[in-house]
Structure formats: structure tokens, C-alpha cells
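An instance noted here:
***
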Amino acid sequence: MKKSLHLLFIIVVFSIYACGGGGGSSLPSSVGSGSTTPDATAPASVDAVVNPTTITSQGTSSISATVLDSTGANVPDGTVVTFSASSGSITPQATTANGVATATFTAGSTAGTVTITATAGSKNDTATITISAPDTGSIEFNSATPSVIGIKGSGQTEVSLIKFLVKDINGNPVVDGTSVSFVMNGPGGGRLPSNGGEYIGDSDATPTTASASTVSGYASVYLNSGSIAGPVIITATVTDTTMSSSSTAISIGGGVPNDAHLTIVTDRFNLEGLGWANIQANISVFMADRFGNYNVLQGTTMSFYSEAGAIDRNAITDANGSASVIFRTQNPLPFDVEPSAWENDLCDDIETAYGLNIYDDTDLGEGNTLTCKYGHPTDGWATIMVTTRGEEAFNDTNGNGLYNTGESFTDTSQEAFLDANDDDSWSDGSVDPEELYIDDSANSICEDTGNGAWDPDKTIFKDLRLLITGAPYYLDTNPASPFAIGNGLSQPFTLLVADYNLNPPIGGTKVTISTSKGTLSGTTSYTFPDLFVAGPIELSFTLSDADPANDLAPTGESATITIKVTYKSIDYYLLVTGTIE
């Protein structure tokens, strides 16, 4: 019976639940069906405070962010707070302790207002810091890049970047935006760019002044060259202060080789090339622009040509506007050219003085030409020519760096030519061999005269002449043997030492003169210098009776003058004999 009652109770309870108790009620549900209970400890507010609120550039400020929950209590310790700043740098994040997170802000170099943002969860707050510039402490010249520029249109770099560094009283770069003014003093004297003047900053009506604002402490301005060369000084001043600084001199150079400054030289003038090959000389070229500046011509190409022997064809100038190549003796020898009037006179004089047969005084036909029979000096002259592109020299009377109509100039040959016959004009081959030339006009004719106009861009050239000589060929005295010197008297002599072309032997050739009787005076020892000489060098000496009291008339004593010429370690001798009473 008890078991049945128990089962009945269970059925009744189930029925009540299934039928809702007959009144539609249900079991209790959770609050807000489908949601969770709010976290009372989540950040509900952020309060950011900066201290101090005004700092100088590179200075620091502390940021405190107080974070509270919805009940107004501090959020739990360890709550993450992130920080950001509109400029400068700041601690990126921190955690709370007793509801407060702190960060450090460091100012940059820009003055103005910086916004700080502190964020915790979905809440944030902002605060501002004012960045003020500390007082300016100094301004100094920093650099000029490059320090040498070429005049306008020279093909060289024409612009230089000039920088000054401005520091505050703490030695740090001043804040960005500090105003600096510039004043230029240059060779153009303030001429406008349209009139060939150099300028700084913009090409405007005030070429000598400009201004700029600092960036990371640097104030910069561009120097633009004009048509005049010379040094430029730029002075920078911090606006509203008396602090100034000047640059070092920035050089404006012409950058174009100038004909008047083109120079060719050698370290040897006389080379024994008639008998020896590979005797060398260093040929150097020096150039400058019209203002005498050479340091803007680095990289200029020079071309070399030689009448005889061989030479390097091209060279590039160094930082000093110079270049060197090697000339060496070998075939061909210098051209055999027609003697000039002075050479014919020389041959005649030498023949007369020394009794030699070197002058042809026969009638050779048309013009009754009288001429040297054998070699003459210019047959041993070798011309070396150097060329480059450049300008003719002119006299800049108004100082504007530009050629103006009416100014004098050097009207050089329109085309470069190798003057092998040494007559300063081009030879077409009708008499002497045709001379090499640079046919710039491409008309197959050498234009060896000027054109009557100043040329800013043409082939300019210079010649150098070397002596290509041989061993002593003429070794003679005047008078020759026999001589007779009376009692108490003396006899002057001249000595000729020359090669086949009547040129002097190479430098270092030594002459010594001695005698068996009497006394010698004058030049009794001589070493030939390395020089380019037009014609032979004659030496003079005198032989005198050494004992006038001893009269040996009428026959006198025999005397021998010994002349020794040492050439390349080889001795050549001439004996001149006679008597002394």
C-alpha cells in the first residue's frame, strides 16, 4: 500500500510541472536571459595629468593616468595603460598601481604644443604639453658641398650647398623652425643673375640675401655661380639676435681652359735621338681658366701630337689642372725642312770662320738661292703639340665675366696644326712636308689664322720644341792649326762643338782644354746645359806666352792645345798645334 501511494505522488508532481501548475507559471530563470553579469572592476574613466606642462626642447615631463572603475574605485593593480604623443617620444605603456599608471615624455626639437593620449580599455583622456625653445647659444659654419664650383655654363658643378649649425645655450641643436638670414659677398658684386652675377637662395631681385629655417639645428642655403670667378663668403645671422658666423671662402672658377693659361713644358730639352732610341722626356701640361684657377679643371682631356719619335696620345688632368705624358726618341726623325734666312747666314758665317765647306754659294737657278749645303738647326727640331677644348683669352674691361663687343681678345688660329717647319704657319706640302692639323671645319683645308671674332669654345693648342741631336760632328777651332804666337803675345780662339745639324750636344757633355806650352785663360772647362738653343754654342779661350822674358824668335817652341769632348762617356779629341816664341 505504501508503494502505491509513493508512485501516485510522483505522477501528481510531474503533472503539475507539465501543465504549468494550471496557471502558466514556470521555473525561475537567470537574470537577463542570454547575457552575463557586468564587470564592476573594468576601466570606466581615465584622467591624464602632465607635470610640468611647459618644457624646453629635449626636456622631459611626467604623465600620470588615473584609472577608475564604474563604482569610482581604483581599477585592480596591473591594469595596462597605453600612451602616445603627437611628437617627441613617450613610454608606450605602463600598468596601474593604486589606480595610477605613469609614463615619461621627452620633447623633440620642434617648438609648439604636443598632445598626450592615455588609453585604458575603451576609455582614454588627453593632455597637452607646451614645448618652448631655449635661448640660442651659438651659430657656426658647418660645410660647403662642394667647396669649388665652376662658372655658369662651364660644364662643371655650378651649385654649392652651404650649411650652418645653430645650437641653444645647452649645446643642443635649436628647435626646428629657428629663422636664419644669409648675406653673400662675391665677385659679381651684387649683379642680378640675368647679368651674370652669382646668387644665393632663389633667383630673384635680391641675389645677395636669403633666409631659411632650421631643421635638426641646420640652416641651409644654395650658392649658384654666375659668370665671374672668385671667392665667395656667406654670413649667417640668427634672426632677432646678434649671433653671426661666416663661411670659409667658396671658390667659383671658370672651369674652361683658357688659351692664355695653357702651358706645355718638358724635363729635357735636348735628346740624343739621332743615334739612340727610347731616350725619354716627361712632357707636362698646365692649364687654368681665364681667372687663373686650375683646381676646377680636373678630368679635362688633353691630346698630344709629335713631329718625331712617339708620345702618349691622351692624358686626363688631375686636381691641379695638369697632366704628364712620356715622349721617346725613335723613328721618324724630325722633318728635313728648308733652311730659313738666319740658318743660311749661320752656315755662311760658320764656313767663313772655321774654313768649312757647309754653305752652297753656287747659282741654283731661279732666285739664285744661296743655302746651307748640309744639315742646319731646324732639321733637328721636333715639335710637340698639345690640344684641348677651351676659349680664347679676352680683356674683361667691365669685369662682368662675359665677353662684350669691343673688348680686346687674342685671335688664335682657327685650327690647330703641328708646326714641323717652325714657321708659325701651316705647310701644305708644296715645299716642306705637309703638316698635321685638326680639321674642325671638315673642309680639308687648315685654317691657320684667326677669324676676327672671340671664340668661347674651340680647339686651343700650344707647341713645344725639342732638340733631337747626335754625337759631336763639328769639332773645330778658329784659328785652326798651325798657330804662331809671338813673344809676350797671345792668341784668342773660338771653339765649335756641334752635331751634324749645327745643334749643341746633349746636356752633360763636357769640354776640357789644356796646352803643352803657354798659359790658357777664358773658358777652359765647360759642361753643356740641357737647353733648347737655336744654333751652336761657341766657346772662347786664349793662349798666351807664359815667359815673355825668354824670346825664342824666330822659330819659337812647339805647343799643342788638347781639346777633349766627353759625350755619353765617349771621349772625342781635337789637337790644335803651333808655336810660341
Summary: The longest helix spans residues 2-18. The two ends are 195 Å apart (CA to CA). The chain has five domains: 45-132, 136-253, 258-339+375-468, 341-372, 474-580. The chain has a mean pLDDT of 90.
